[in-house]
Amino acid sequence: MNDAEMDTPVPVIDLDIVMANLRRMQDYCDLHGLKLRPHIKTHKMPDLALEQVRLGAVGITCQKLGEAEVMVDAGLTDILMSYPVIGAAKAARLGALARRATMRVAVDNPVALRTVADAASQAGREIGILVEFDSGRLRTGVTTVDEALALARAVVATDGVRFDGLMTYPSSAATAPFIAAAKEAFAAAGIEIGMVSGGGTPDVWSKHETVGLTELRVGTYIFHDRATVGNGVATLDDCALHVHATVVSRPTPDRAVIDTGSKSLSSDLVAPSVGKGFGMIREYPDAVIERVNEEHGMVDLSACAARPEIGERVRVLPNHVCVVVNLHDTVVRTRGGEIDGDGTGVWPVAARGRSR
Amino acid sequence: MNDAEMDTPVPVIDLDIVMANLRRMQDYCDLHGLKLRPHIKTHKMPDLALEQVRLGAVGITCQKLGEAEVMVDAGLTDILMSYPVIGAAKAARLGALARRATMRVAVDNPVALRTVADAASQAGREIGILVEFDSGRLRTGVTTVDEALALARAVVATDGVRFDGLMTYPSSAATAPFIAAAKEAFAAAGIEIGMVSGGGTPDVWSKHETVGLTELRVGTYIFHDRATVGNGVATLDDCALHVHATVVSRPTPDRAVIDTGSKSLSSDLVAPSVGKGFGMIREYPDAVIERVNEEHGMVDLSACAARPEIGERVRVLPNHVCVVVNLHDTVVRTRGGEIDGDGTGVWPVAARGRSR
Fold it and tell me: What ipTM was assigned to the predicted interfaces of this complex?
């Protein structure tokens, strides 16, 4: 690989590390009897989703229908929509997907249930439903077992849909007690909870301790990032994606400017306990990307013994890799230290920007 | 326009407001004898750049060569690169552009100058150079008049390039004193400062008070956003772009979840004095988008008298519109309250993601 041929800023993915990360997670799930359903929102590349399934994943997770459309086009056949699908336009799209793949959808309210039922009706295919509950993140999900049961009853009473079980994100200390209480209440109501889907890379290696979980949804583990390293579930050696950048200015001895800003690294931060700034420069770990503008990264070098020259290339470990991938139409991929693929190494991020 | 036909999340641009914003800025520049060179990093759409030129702009500003390539392909002929261009790959691309359009490039160091000179040599065309100085933002730009003069001398001594003047961003209270001191020092050295380019929408209506400024670079004014409204240079009625979103969950009375997160709104915040959260919901101005995940916007409704239902559409005014546009492959545009264009209203963001 000739770094100098890849113009910056460019995300570069080490496929050897990717494969090791994928195998490690599949092995973990196999060891503990958990089904693995990787979340493709991190990589958004169909061939990597197919690789995850080839290694043993039961299917994939998508956040948005636009992602699922790209994945089904590429041959993925079993998809969980872990996100509320609402409204007539989305019902039509979900129905079209249900004619081509096994679809499940998480719902936390009756309007979402109605949308899925409309999709099933249009498709003439049954669609599985998971009731989403909140394990403390305070985003989507019903907050009580009573609400979960009421929604499950509504699912059972609705034509064209099938109640498959429960879903939460992330699974946490609050998850097992909810599952236990739900099992009791649902059993009394004569409703079987066939599966319980949890997830989240940040504390993934203890997920098997959550009693009742049957399936794991994780995304970030394919690449890892500064946040997951900071959380202790990965090491710097497990990080498969770096944004290669060039030092474009050295206005003062203590300041460098690199050609990655919020349009290529995002503005996402990490917890103060993990580190400062908008990414970690691997060659200068004591440097701090203290501010980003759209295309500028302002780097404080005051703690650095060695300092970069103008024109020097550096590798930035992103704070949050999922939003970084989503900024780039293409990535460069390497294998065995050489550019992978057709010689250019350039791969499209096929589901980039599919937020609808 | 039938809102329900535009699936969410989707950026929707009101072209009537755009045109009023473009005319107001051109009128301002005309009134004060400033040349207007709009920055296209905000909209990234060639037809809007052509409209800016049609209304009187002397040319456009691009941050990255990838943007300039899209704009020159579309017929733009006069471009200022307001960003350091560094390295052999970029020299080749700049050279190719210089054969097709009038190019100027800002530099703040000798390595950048060398790159531009290489490009000029490859193109067989002279390329204009502005020396960038820092007016207090502490990103790129030389920090003293002595450095500016040394670099200008180097430009004058370099074949293929032409010293055109100075550039800074944003122009501020520190700008006029720097210009005055530079004029004296450069005159003593026999170097003419032909133009001085400043800019920045956040305080744009006082830019004419900066003695010595000849040209204005502004981007955000085309759409405006929560930040520029907060800065007092625009009103809510001047805001031309909103991200239309759907309420997808109402887990508790005080919480709504909308289908826009950091992948469609970005994680950019505004100053605390301007407001809280990740955007402003126009229909519920007392609601706070207190957290975003990638596709979730968590809305605190506790201060709201009226509250939205699941399935309801809302319009989110972005905190920072430039990074929002860069997240979306397409936007919907309206004119006279009706969908513009071919009936779908869908327009590509042609230079989206062109960070290289």
Answer: 0.97
